[in-house]
Design goal:
The structure holds two protein chains of two kinds. Chain A is of the alpha/beta class. Chain A has helices at residues 27-34, 57-62, 80-84, 103-116, 133-146, 163-178, 190-196, 219-227; strands spanning 16-21, 45-47, 50-52, 65-68, 91-94, 98-101, 151-155, 182-186, 199-204, 207-212. Chain A has eight helices and ten strands. Chain A has a six-stranded mixed β-sheet with strand order 4-7-8-1-9-10, with helices on both faces. Chain A has a two-stranded antiparallel ribbon with strand order 2-3. In chain A, strands 5-6 form a two-stranded antiparallel sheet. In chain A, helix 4 packs across helix 5. Chain B is globular, with a radius of gyration of 21 Å. Classes of the chains: A alpha/beta, B mainly alpha.
Amino acid sequence: MQALDKVSLNVYPGEVVALAGDNGAGKSTIIKAISGVFQLDEGEILLDGRKVSFTSPQEARDNGIETIYQDLALADNLSIGANIFLGREPMTRWLGILPVIDRAKMAQAAKSTMEQLDFHVTRLDAPVAAFSGGQRQAVAIGRAIFWNARLVIMDEPTAALGVPEQRKVISLIQSLKAAGKGIIFISHNLRDIFEVADRIVVFRRGENAGERKPAETSGDEIVRLMVGK
Amino acid sequence: MTTAALASPTSRPSLLMRVAELRAWLFLIVLVIFFETWTRIGYGTSFLFSLYNLQAIAVFAAMPLLLGLGQTFVIISAGIDLSLAFVMGLASVVAAHLTNIGATNFGMSQPVAMLFGILVGVAITIIPGLVNGWLIAYLSVPPFIGTLGMYGVSRGAAYLLAGGMTIAVDNDWYSQIGNGRAFGYIPILVIITAAACLILHYMLSQTRFGQHTYAMGASKAAANRAGINIKMLTLKIYVLSAIMGGVAGAMYTGRFSAGAPQAGEALLLDSIAAVVIGGASLFGGSGTIWGTVAGAFVIAVIQYGLVLVDVEPFWQFIAVGGVIIVSVLVDQTQRRYLGGRQAE
């Protein structure tokens, strides 16, 4: 069964591309292909014009592609700093000999990253379970920023959030854009798409169904492209 | 750059959080005061200010605590290790046998034979540890079931190797390890246990291994996504737990000058209770070594204290059971009020 056929997607630095489409359209599939979860049978991925192929998500990450899935992949019981460094914790030496985790460095990273996102909490070392959905989204985004992601991919970033928090996440996306990152985000939320996207790419049944600029189209047209009328 | 400031989580009274983290120690203090009062009023003696009592309680706590140390890692990772009951016995029997074989067949001196026995006894536990880890990580068997299976296998192996009886060991050095005192005061067994506590505390709180254990307990998906090798991590955790079972078993043989297959049978639930009383959630993601230490001492104080004040021994079981229930209730209330799980 072919999930994707003859699709193509471009993203430029400082550009936000919204990926729209009905369920089963192939949006998650192409995201997973770009971020190294799936391998391509045919076709190519070009990064800076250079052909790349990733055999694991870690490789994609090493090349500056960070993916934020819907469940955020945060460890609830750990702090912001610990989550930012999850899997690659910095080490230092206690009394010069004993290798220990460098918690000071993790705390500093948390502080500077969250400041960049204008994220203020009384306790930066609290476990992230203590934060709201929008704040947790910010932590996930912060993690991507800290590791200097050039391309940030987000899967339904506002799906589980209430309206005020959705607004906050949208402005986080705008910060990322201002920082020169490329952003792809999958969304069903037309309002979000029209608010922040520079281009809207619509997939239908594993194929490109159309590409529009928000200013040149309407919600109705996007839905028509998604559904195929 | 227009960004919206995100509101901070409501600031919680940090004193209350501190109290919650130290819950097990507070519990211990309350218990000690309770028994101190009882012994003073009822018997005119002291509970706490008696060297004999302190030594006895510490020795009492040592072996369940050794099991609890490994169990802490396992429980934090959202697993459980039921096989420890007989992995300990297996190690005890093997240590006894090999100490004897070392002396008799290889002409080793007592200290060398002892070291030989202890080394092999502890090393043999790597096998059940690997099997547990492999079942759980690679065959996706739920930890409860996998380790229950190894409980049975280790039990059979231990009894088979012991020929259904205990294996006497005649080794003064070994007996000293289990019963001797350093500087006349501190039982060697306690020193060894304390060293184990320090080492495992370091591993849990200061190494990537420990950090990843916490992460895995919170969310395997998150740990996986972060590039952590979950399978290897699981393997290491269960091998560590089994090794601690091995250490406990080796210590048992020293203490009783005999290897016994049932050495750890009564201690398994105490080891789990110690971890839970110490603040860990059985759903994983939280717990600390010092919490487990406090939990082990809570259990030891209850058991020893009740004997000291002439209470029918079987009340101990009810008391420890009650403490476990209260701990979990307090823990759940704490979570509801303060939110989130706490890692080290």
